């Protein structure tokens, strides 16, 4: 009987345990399965509308980000283009710079060469006549200014250079062609020179003296009223200083006008106020010019300018006896000088 009670109690306990466990499990399951308390319908509509809004915002955001991305790509592409342009510009600048430096180098080389040759020019190659200008590549005829030279003792002097005829390099010392300038002047005027360098002028005995201290050639060109031209050239020409009355020395004639200066060789210069001629008469007054008068003339290129018509009537005109005799006054005369050593 006890055994059966015991068994019953044990069975009861087990049953209770099983029941308890089953109940606990059932309660847990029940708890899991129980749906959340239902909310009111209004709340769910709001959520749904919010969800829709979120979705549409997301898509907008997505779109925006896509657009931003494409914009960014555009910007990047533009940046790259700009970079390329910049590189091109830089390349051009570099090219220009290299060209500039090349030119600059050439200029530097030229300046250097000029600087190197400058000392030679200042000593052995000074500018003191048209021939030296010619050798410095001045090859156009016209008026030039010879610089003052302390070493040679020459003042600044305006000259007319014939750079074209007979090889060029000629310094013109006398010209008659216009006929308005009187050549009947005194000693001082013949000493210093007078007239217009582009027209009629005498360069001055002092200048002739200085310019002919080196072995010099004299060329006299002349034209008559018929338009024919002749010349007389002397391979040797010099004058002495004022103390020696600018005495004339010429030699070695060539030409087609006749040697009408030979008669005047070794004579002093005379003017209307200084009779240095070899005559009882005053030749300068008779011939109305300044010249190396003997007794008196075989030529008179500083005589009176007579125009066509009256050019054959007077013995004091611009004459060259070897061509037209004593009473023919020429239309044009030009005296020019050049160093004997000149090579065109
Ligand atoms: Ca005399």
TrEMBL record:
Q: Write the protein's name.
A: Fibrinogen C-terminal domain-containing protein
Q: What is the originating organism of this protein?
A: Cirrhinus molitorella (mud carp)
Question: Keyword annotations for this protein?
Answer: Coiled coil, Disulfide bond, Glycoprotein, Secreted, Signal
Q: Which residues form the Fibrinogen C-terminal domain?
A: 121-341
Where along the sequence do coiled-coil regions lie?
Answer: 72-106
Q: Which SUPFAM superfamilies does this entry report, sorted A to Z?
A: Fibrinogen C-terminal domain-like
Origin: domain of life? Eukaryota
- Cell compartments where the protein resides: Secreted
Q: Which residues form the signal peptide?
A: 1-24
Q: Name one Pfam family in it.
A: Fibrinogen_C
User: Keyword Nucleotide-binding, does the record have it?
Assistant: no
Q: Which CDD domains is this protein grouped with? A: FReD
